[in-house]
Design goal:
35% of the residues lie in helices and 24% in strands. The longest helix has 27 residues, at 436-462. The chain is an alpha+beta fold and 1101 residues long. Zinc ion binds next to helix 7.
């Protein structure tokens, strides 16, 4: 709630601060992105070791030393499905030895406590602490061994399981400490170390290093290092050229392992997700998002063949946009293990599926598993419909996704009635309970129901559609040209089997023409009046041809449109789009396929990119740019950017015109204007803001007239493109703006009250004698207004209320405002005094009519006064200096920790810190480094303000919604220590870098980063390779932390903000993080990071 108050405060304050307001207001508070985010870090997992590795058994054992001496060594031994490893302790990450099960011939029990592993050339002897332990080990090993052999078929590599070996580089290297020669192999995303090549061939290794966590550093001469979060390995190659080849291969391995994008990385963190749910092939890259299993490419193919209504198959890599956080959460919480606990609870060994199975067997198994549910673990309530339904209603409110999955696939009705009127379905119930993963699971399964239902009902009626239409004779004249009735001929048209054809009549077999529906790129309902047939539609094909069809009535056109769009559109879009004016596909820069599907209906443009449908209200675009050169379009809205390259085909021009027309027009009624997120026309919003900023204290505001030519000119600019108008005090007087607003209201088509008839009802209501009856009628009339008109009237009345609130200064009382705005609002001549009365009463009864709480209003008005008085009492010499009251948080962002502080335009961070500490009575202790931070993304990103940095511009940063927090800085002392230690302030090295382009982009690449002089550079590869990007360090805002959506591989991240771009640098460990931060700070602040204690004291006293 504290944050909400903060928003409120800022809403009011934003009006009073004389800072440059950004032209395109990309981020007012109300537009703030409130998307819930999910932090996929290790904390998501209850027990890391259990969830992440597929260890079958682990424990302490004693083993004979290598030279078959008699003294046993105590080792931590781990068995997984492929290797037996032993480590110094359970805390170790890198083993001392790893023995492939592929080389073990048998396990032999020796005496009470001992057992041996026999391979062709060696015997490994272990001793357990007691008999039970020994038995258990032998048993586990035998099981693992037989599983291993069963999954194998000859020929095989003794070390790597068949199918997993993918050697890209191998050879000898010298490991520096201990100094030994090792035989080294790069395979997939790991580096494997062996004592020598013989041991590799015999299936015995030393350890493996996961390259996803590693960084390669070139060293002197023949040496190089491999740094992982746990250990640094130093190597020496046989020659310098050999070293170069190793470094190249290892770097390639790192980037290859990282190119696997965020979704894979996240999902594979659950051990069971590392194997195909059906055939156990490793690292499955496909998923069925309704059955909740991950699978390999082969199994995915089979799933797909079962149809979308059985299994919705999506790629982890290619369909990135499908993977919203909630869906990821479903797969993390369930995982293949849990999902299979339901789907594959009872698979007879004879029917199990191995990864080498042939296609027939695969199809049999997967059909039995999912279509027939042969192996599933039936719910105990199976068959009792009502009990299942009520169990489902209960489950969706809990965290138990497995229960929900089980119930859904054992017959519970996903659309059953919950019995609660407010939350009638399980889905609404899940949302009410905050179970977003449950809601996602239901959604994915609900669509299935809908799809399969539709495919039964509608396919019959719509897949084929026939009827008479009128078609102009083919000619070279463009179809957009006006046609007479004589130009049209009656044609029998058929849509069947993906082909649209037309014939002379319904018993003719000779086709006159037609096209495949897959070739249709655009379908458009023509606006009435263009042709003699009032109801027409156009179709455009891939090769650039246009077709026009006419009908006698609107229904015929509507039915044809529906049939054709069903045949044309991907089902994901067709299901949600409803009837529309224009639809089709266009090339676009965004999205991996470069093709988007679009449906335009009124002001609503729905876009299907990859697998996500987004809805854009064209009136609320931040900007729409049509290139003069080539006609390409760029749409920017709060959800992102869409870039449509030009297309010479005729359909593109149609799209341009439609999108432009629907993006708001100045000469249209209010609801057709360009709008803000709050549904207020941009023109009105801009004027209100300007008057609030500069006019509230101006005597006679709205009463005084402006200069006519200025008003006309400004209004014309608003008409042309309101979004592009920015008002500045120096260019235009506040009276001109006030009068522009009045003229706009007076002239806008239908007025704010939506037509003269409605206006009359308001006047009639004003004539009622009883006041409460009048108010009641106003409320009624208000609720009957269209949304945009209602929002506008509210914004306007609120504004007039603040003008009235300061009437001592500006002399504009309710009465005066009524006199001015009555005729304006009613678009009348002012003879009916009731118009003024309505305005007066709207102001007087603002709270009850617009349903605003009194206390909220009072708070707003008080702040207005405080801020304005301060504004007024500022030294007259410096007009630009103003001081406002801001909420600043102490230590954390929560209710109760905020402090209201007066912030003057020149206040520095260090002054703010001491003010806040003073306020809260916090004593300064020498070792404490208190600093002021600018916090973004609900605390995910945090930037320390330099002590001398001015606070106010930060608080009002355009486009960013930051909160100010004063807190102890845990890093400063390490940063200062580090800076003291080094001689030159510069830093370079390879980091994982991610350009934050959109909500979903989280592709990391390795980049060589260089911070020296005053510049930060990114190189594609090593230092000497050409620089990819560079920024002056002082232009960057350097944040500690990152948006959790990035699913960063480590917690030590730095986000660089430059204009609206963000770059994320991922450090491997804390030290590295501190070093980079220290270097950034030192360069940004010319080495002056922390003031001497004296400075601090003087501020605090
Ligand atoms: Zn598989």
């Amino acid at each position: 709630m504290a944050v909400k108050q903060q928003d409120l405060l800022r809403d009011i304050q934003k009006c009073f601060i004389q800072l440059k307001v950004e032209e395109n207001k990309t981020g007012t508070v109300s537009e703030r992105d409130r998307n819930e985010s999910i932090n996929i870090g290790c904390t998501e997992f209850p027990d890391d070791s259990e969830e992440v590795s597929s260890i079958l058994k682990a424990g302490w054992l004693e083993k004979t030393p290598p030279n078959s001496g008699v003294i046993y060594q105590r080792r931590w031994v781990q068995l997984d499905s492929e290797y037996l490893r032993y480590l110094q302790s359970p805390k170790e990450v890198y083993s001392k030895r790893m023995i492939s099960l592929g080389c073990v011939d048998k396990v032999v029990a020796v005496g009470d406590l001992k057992f041996e592993l026999h391979s062709q050339n060696r015997t490994f002897l272990f001793r357990a602490d007691n008999i039970e332990e020994k038995k258990d080990w032998v048993c586990c090993l035998e099981k693992a061994l037989s599983d291993y052999k069963n999954s194998e078929s000859e020929p095989k590599n003794p070390f790597f399981k068949r199918g997993t070996v993918d050697l890209s580089f191998e050879g000898y290297l010298e490991l520096m400490s201990p100094r030994i020669k090792v035989y080294t192999i790069i395979s997939r995303d790991k580096l494997y170390l062996f004592k020598n090549r013989e041991e590799y061939l015999h299936g015995v290794g030393v350890t493996d290093i996961d390259m996803r966590m590693a960084r390669v550093k070139d060293g002197e001469k023949r040496s190089f290092t491999l740094t992982t979060p746990y250990r640094t390995f130093s190597f020496s190659a046989e020659s310098e050229s050999e070293k170069q080849r190793w470094c190249d291969s290892l770097n390639e391995c790192v980037s290859r392992s990282l190119s696997c994008d965020g979704v894979c990385e996240s999902l594979w963190r659950v051990a069971s997700n590392q194997q195909c749910a059906d055939c156990s092939a490793s690292m499955p890259e496909w998923a069925s998002i309704n059955l909740c299993v991950l699978m390999c490419e082969k199994c995915a193919g089979v799933h797909r063949s079962l149809g979308q209504n059985v299994s919705k198959v999506r790629s982890l890599k290619l369909d990135e946009r499908v993977w919203i956080d909630d869906l990821i959460r479903v797969f993390l919480q369930l995982g293949n293990a849990k999902a299979n606990a339901f789907w594959a609870a009872n698979i007879p060994p004879s029917e199990s599926l191995s990864m080498d199975a042939n296609d027939k067997h695969r199809l049999q198994h997967i059909t039995a598993k999912y279509v027939h549910g042969k192996y599933r673990n039936y719910h105990t309530l199976y068959g009792q419909q009502e009990a299942l339904n009520s169990a489902l209603c209960k489950a969706v409110q809990s965290a138990d996704l497995l229960e929900t999955l089980t119930l859904l696939h054992c017959g519970a009705d996903i659309k059953c009635h919950t019995g609660i009127p407010e939350f009638p379905t399980p889905l609404t119930l899940a949302r009410r309970s905050g179970q977003s993963a449950q809601a996602e699971l239901l959604t994915q399964n609900q669509n299935i129901e809908a799809e399969s239902f539709e495919s039964v009902v509608e396919d019959v009626s719509i897949q084929s559609y026939c009827g008479y239409l009128f078609k102009p004779a083919s000619s070279s004249r463009p179809i957009t040209e006006h046609k007479n009735k004589a130009d049209f001929a009656k044609r029998w048209c058929c849509l069947e089997g993906g082909v649209f054809s037309y014939y002379k009549n319904d018993h003719s077999n000779n086709k006159c023409g037609g096209m495949k529906t897959s070739d249709i790129i655009c379908l458009s309902a023509t606006s009435p009046g263009n042709h003699v047939y009032e109801h027409t539609f156009e179709m455009y094909t891939e090769e650039g041809r246009g077709y026009l069809f006419g009908a006698d009535d609107a229904d015929t056109v509507r039915n044809w449109s529906k049939a054709i769009s069903k045949a044309m559109l991907p089902p994901t879009l067709f299901d949600v789009c409803g009837p529309c004016d224009r639809l089709g596909r266009l090339r676009c820069v965004e999205g991996s396929h470069g093709i988007g599907w679009f449906c335009l209906s009124g002001f609503k443009l729905q876009v299907l990119l990859e697998n996500t449908v987004q809805t854009i209200d064209l009136r609320k675009l931040f900007s729409l740019t049509l290139s003069d050169n080539d006609g390409s379009m760029v749409l920017v809205w709060r959800g992102g950017t869409l870039h449509l390259p030009t297309d010479r085909k005729p359909h593109f021009v149609g799209w341009q015109t439609c999108i432009q027309q629907k993006s708001g027009a100045g000469d249209q009624p209010l609801s057709h204007q360009q709008l803000t997120e709050l549904d207020v026309p941009v023109t009105i919003d801009r004027c209100l803001d300007h008057v609030t900023l500069y006019g509230l204290l101006s005597p006679g505001i709205y009463r005084k007239s402006g200069i006519d030519s200025h008003i006309t000119k400004l209004l014309e600019r608003f008409h042309n493109d309101a979004r592009s108008v920015s008002l500045s005090k120096s260019d235009i007087s506040v009276d001109d703006v006030a009068n522009t607003l009045k003229r706009f209201l007076r002239e806008v088509k239908d007025g704010v009250l939506n037509g003269q008839d409605n206006a009359k009802s308001w006047l009639k209501a004003a004539g009622l004698e009883d006041k409460s009856e009048r108010i009641y009628q106003y409320q009624n009339l208000l609720s009957n207004l269209p949304d945009v008109n209602r929002a506008t009237l509210k914004a306007l009345t609120h504004h007039l209320l603040s003008v009235q609130h300061l009437s001592d200064e500006n002399q504009m009382t309710e009465r005066n405002l009524g006199i001015v705005f009555g005729p304006t609002l009613f678009q009348s001549d002012g003879t009916d005094f009731k118009a003024s009365q309505v305005v007066e009463e709207l102001i007087q009864n603002y709270c009850s009519i617009f349903n605003v709480s009194e206390s909220e209003l009072q708070r707003q008005l008080n702040l207005t006064t405080v801020a304005l008085n301060r504004h007024k009492s500022e030294r007259p010499s410096s007009k630009t200096t103003s001081s406002i009251i801001c909420a600043v948080y102490l230590e954390r962002i929560e209710e109760g920790s905020e402090v209201l502080v007066q912030i003057g335009a020149n206040m520095t961070a260090v002054e703010l810190v001491s003010d806040v500490l003073d306020h809260k009575g916090v004593k300064l202790v020498n070792e404490d480094f208190w600093t002021c931070h600018d916090i973004l993304e609900k605390g995910e990103m945090d930037r320390m303000l330099h002590n001398h940095e001015k606070v106010l511009p930060v608080y009002f940063s355009p486009g960013l919604q930051c909160l100010l927090v004063v807190k102890k800085n845990p890093y400063i002392s390490s940063i200062l220590k580090y800076l003291e230690m080094i001689e030159n302030v510069c830093k370079s090295g390879t980091l994982r870098v991610c350009e934050v382009k959109s909500e979903r982009s989280k592709n990391y690449c390795s980049r060589y980063c260089e911070l020296s002089g005053t510049t930060f550079r990114l190189h594609k590869e090593l230092q000497n390779s050409p620089c990819e990007r560079e920024w002056p360090v002082k232009d960057l805002k350097v944040y500690n932390g990152y948006r959790s959506k990035l699913h960063s591989p480590t917690p030590w991240g730095i986000t660089l903000v430059h204009d609206k771009q963000q770059w994320y640098l991922c450090c491997d460990n804390e030290d590295e993080f501190i070093e980079w931060m220290a270097t950034f700070f030192s360069i940004q602040y010319d080495g002056d990071i922390w003031p001497s204690p004296l400075v601090m004291q003087s501020h605090n006293s």
